[in-house]
Every structure is written in C-alpha cells, then in structure tokens.
Amino acid sequence: MDIERKILENVRLTHHFYRKDEKQFNRKIVVGFGSNEKFLRPTVTAITSLVVNNKETFFVVNIFVDKISNEGLSKLNQLINMYGNFEIKIYTVNPTIFDKIYIRSQFTIAAYFRIIMPIILSDEDFILYMDSDVVCLKEISEVFNIRFNLKNKIVAAINDIEATSEKQGLFLNIPKKDYFNSGILIIDIKAWNDYNITQSVFEILLQKSSIFNFPDQDALNLALHGKVYYLGRKWNYFNDFKKSLLGEIIFYHFANNPKPWKSWYANTDKQKLYLKYEKMSPFKKTPLEKLQKDYRIARKHMRMLLKKGKILSGIKWLIIYRKLKKKEAGHDGFRVNTD
C-alpha cells in the first residue's frame, strides 16, 4: 500500500467546533498543529495568541492528534466560545501509520503529524504549520506575501541557529546555510503533493530515523533541500530572549526545555510572555505543571540554579538529575507498537 492511501485510510475528522461563518472576514489562514494530551495546553495557548492578535483574520485550525480526552474537547469548545474568528477541526490519527519508524524517547508521534497534513488538507492552498510551543506576538497578514513569493519553492522556513545548522548540515551532507528549523512552516500544499514530499519523508525515516538527532526535522531537510524559501528570524524566534526585540518578533518559539507551563521554568521573563496568552485561554486557572521526570530538563535546571549561586538547590537537582539519568540509561528509544 502506498503511503498516501495508508494516510487517507487512517486519519479521520472526528470533531468540528465553530461559531461564526468565515465569510464575515476578509482573510482566511489555514493552520495546522500536531498535538496530544500532553501538549494540548500549549496548543490552546498558541491558538489563543493567534486569534487575539489577528482579529480581522479567520483561522481554520486543524489539530492532528492520536487521541484526545473529553476534558481536552471541552477546553477547545470553551475557546471557541471565547473568540469567534476561527473554527477547529480535530483529526484523529491511527498511529499504525508510523509503526515502522523509530521514535526517540524525547519525541512523540505528534512530531510526525506535520508530514501528513498536506495529504489530508489537499483542497487548501497553503498551511501555516506551528509547533505547539509557539506563541504569536503580532498580526501576520504578511504570510500572504510569503505565500506569493514561494514561486518554485515548496515551504518557507527559517535557518536554524548556527550551532545546530553546522552540526546537522555536516551530518546530513547539506550546506549549513540550508538547514532549517521546522517549528514554523508555510507550506504550498499543491507543490508539496506534486513533489510527493510526504512519500519521500517516509522513505527517509524508514531508512534513517534511528540515527537522526531531530528525526522529522532532519528528514524534512533532506526531502526539501533546494525547495525552501528562507524567512527572517522574526518568523520563528527562539533560544535567546531580549525584551527589546519583542516588538519585532512575530512568532516566539519556546523550543528548549523546560517549557514555560512548568512550575520551575528557568526564565521568568519568557514564562510571563507565555502566561500572558495562557491567561486569555480556558487554561487561565490551571496550575503550572510539576516536574517532568526527564534527566535533560533536570540537568538544565541544576545548571541554572548553580549559575545563580543557589548552591544547595543546585546540589539537590544534581542528585535528581543523576537518579533520572541512571533510570533512563539503556532506554533511548522505541518503535511504535500497536499489536
């Protein structure tokens, strides 16, 4: 069975939330998210940031999930009733689509959902794909100019940071200046499908996903090499945080761990930026999440505390880090098992 047929048979539109007719708006943007129960909270916050900063635009928000709880559906319904300039479509993905692809423990199946969106949304002109840990800070009508400027390209994206681009470019045998971050993508759907990008990405993943550092992103860089229109950093700004730049940034990407919806987030200014939009969402009264048992996050928190001179707290987190790392030793990945 070819991959397109397999996708069409294993992805279903299961829920549709709407309040207003899009014909009342002059502009429409189709947005895609890959999410799950763990990331539904930031997904809702990301949607909130989009709609409150773009009140003259109607958004068709497509959320691809492997499953979603009644509580999650309730939050999305609440969001629709709070703001009227969008609709939400929930697509439920059968994980057997990815049953032969290796997935590292720090990633989830949801990371691969962006790859199948152009197949399911083939009737649309373009998609604005967003990672769930992104917030929109301003109006984005410029996206239509970018769509026009794609011409013979398939996606628009930003170059990743220099260290990552250099390392991954060398690893993938592509120029470092060409390596892009896949957290924000503007996708020409017809061009994507004409070039069979989904099929190409799956073939690459089946062969190499076990050796990739960033499986979906590395595969996309190989499949789309030479077909990328590069954007300025304001379209997917991450890592460093400078208040003076906030007026210029369109999308801020909380790419690193820990995430800002955690109770022990390391940078309070970045956390405040995230919470600004979460407090406008149905999650406004939801307490921040407690520690996630991940040694990488514990290590980063430990280093932050030691850097600030909080020695005793740093030592406490050093102990936590060592225990978590020991526990995870030998469990660096798995294959999706649906038996």
Lay out the secondary structure.
Layout: H1 3-10, E1 11-17, E2 27-34, H2 40-53, E3 57-65, H3 70-82, E4 86-93, E5 102-104, H4 113-120, E6 126-130, E7 134-136, H5 143-149, E8 155-159, H6 162-172, E9 180-188, H7 189-194, H8 197-208, H9 215-223, E10 228-231, E11 237-238, E12 251-253, H10 268-278, H11 295-307, H12 311-328, E13 333-335
Parallel strand pairs: 2-3, 2-6, 3-4, 8-10, 11-12
Antiparallel strand pairs: 1-4, 5-13, 6-9, 7-12, 8-9
Helix pairs in contact: 4-8, 8-9, 11-12
Explain what this protein looks like in three dimensions.
This protein has 339 residues and is of the alpha/beta class. Helix content is 38%, strand content 20%. The chain contains 12 helices and 13 strands. Helix 4 packs antiparallel against helix 8 (197-208) and helix 11 runs antiparallel to helix 12.
What descriptive keywords fit this protein?
single chain, alpha/beta, 339 residues, Spore Coat Polysaccharide Biosynthesis Protein SpsA, Chain A, disordered C terminus, three-stranded mixed sheet, 2 domains
Summarize the structure.
Helix content is 38%, strand content 20%. The protein has helices at residues 3-10, 40-53, 70-82, 113-120, 143-149, 162-172, 189-194, 197-208, 215-223, 268-278, 295-307, 311-328, and strands spanning 11-17, 27-34, 57-65, 86-93, 102-104, 126-130, 134-136, 155-159, 180-188, 228-231, 237-238, 251-253, 333-335.
